[in-house]
Amino acid sequence: MKEYKVKVYDDRTEWYNLEGELHREDGPAKEYANGDKEYYINGQLHREDGPAVECSNGDKYYYINDKYLTEEEFNNRNNPTLDKAAEYYAHNYFDMHETNSYKELKKGFIAGVEWERKTNTV
C-alpha cells in the first residue's frame, strides 16, 4: 500500500510522497477546484498514459520525467522504429524511393499500425 501526505487548500488538493515531493501513482497529484489536473511522480510532471496537465478549458500538456513533449512526440515516443519499419517495407517491397507514392505508402503504413495498436488488434 502506498502512503501519501494530502494537503487540502481552498482551490486545490495536493498529494505528496513521504519525501515531500508531489507524487501520486493512481491519479493526479494536484486537483484544482476549477477542474485542472496535474500528474506528478517524485516531484516531476509525468504521465505515461495521457497528458500530465489537463486544463478545464481543454488544453493538454504532455510531460515525461518533467520534459515537455508535443502531443505527436508523446504519441510516437514508444515507436522510434516505426518510421524505419515503414521505410524498409515501402523500399523493399515496392522499390519506390522517395517518390510521392513511396511517401504515401509509408504514411499509410504508419497510420495502419497506429490504428491497429489503438484498437488492440496487434
What does this molecule look like?
There is one protein chain. The chain is of the alpha+beta class. It folds into two domains: 5-76, no CATH class; 82-118, no CATH class. The chain has helices spanning 71-76, 82-94, 100-118; strands spanning 5-8, 12-16, 30-32, 37-38, 40-41, 44-45, 53-54, 60-64, 67-69. The strands form two sheets. The chain has a seven-stranded antiparallel β-sheet. Strands 5-6 form a two-stranded antiparallel sheet. Helix 2 (82-94) crosses helix 3. It is elongated, with a radius of gyration of 20 Å.
Summed over residues and divided by their number, the pLDDT gives a mean of 82
Largest sheet: 7 strands, antiparallel
Q: What is the structural class?
A: alpha+beta
How many DSSP H or I helices? 3
Instruction: Identify low-pLDDT runs.
Output: none
As for the number of domains, it is 2
Order of helices and strands: EEEEEEEEEHHH
The tally of beta strands, per DSSP, is 9
Strand content: 15-25%
How far apart lie the N and C ends?
A: 33 Å
Strand numbers in spatial order across the main sheet: 1-2-3-4-7-8-9
Determine Rg (CA atoms, Å).
20 Å
Helix fraction, binned, reads 25-40%
C-alpha geometry: elongated
Label this structure with key terms.
122 residues, alpha+beta, 2 domains, seven-stranded antiparallel β-sheet, two-stranded antiparallel ribbon, 23% strand
